[in-house]
Write a structure and sequence with these properties.
Radius of gyration: 13 Å
Shape: globular
Strand content: 25-35%
Number of strands: 4
Number of domains: 1
Order of helices and strands: HEEEE
CATH class: Alpha Beta
Amino acid sequence: MLDQTTEITTVAEIDLTAGGLHDALRRVRHAICREETRYYLNGVYMHHVGRDRALRFVATDGHHLAMADIRTPDGAETMRPVILVARIRG
């Protein structure tokens, strides 16, 4: 179940390597929705998966689903799920 809290109650700071972040986003970018009418699918859902010890990135356009994991960086265990809004050029 998704957390529906609208106010920020905790702060999590994590350090990602540029290469790790780039690789994860590269592997899911083809599934990010680019249609303005489906704005609710624009972006990449990022959350910590404790049992896999991974930071998971997920994207969908309603037809394709993509997922990529990277090793959990320090501090990610307390991170709340977030949606990274994509600004795709071209």
